[in-house]
Design goal:
single chain; 84 residues; mainly beta; 4 strands; globular
């Protein structure tokens, strides 16, 4: 599978929704050797629903501006659903 997590935590993720509105959620963020996994808690908060598994080759992480505690990670992810 994914192997051991190299880093795990919670991030506030801001994204464009399909209706062109900006939304934000706290998400579980787990960094593996080959993937960055983003997940949100289910309604009962007993498990998580994976919303994205991003190939690390698509990521670019930059140092924070002036060494302050925030940084921006810009990703362009397009999603679609197919019926199988």
């Amino acid at each position: 599978m994914l192997g051991h997590a190299q880093l795990c935590g919670a991030l506030y993720v801001v994204y464009h929704h399909s209706s062109n509105e900006i939304r934000g959620n706290y998400m579980l963020c787990a960094l593996f050797e080959s993937r960055l996994l983003l997940a949100i808690p289910t309604v009962k908060c007993k498990s998580f629903e994976v919303v994205a598994a991003i190939d690390n080759r698509c990521l670019q992480i930059a140092e924070p501006d002036e060494g302050k505690g925030t940084f921006t990670l810009n990703l362009s992810i397009s999603t679609h659903s197919d019926n199988y």
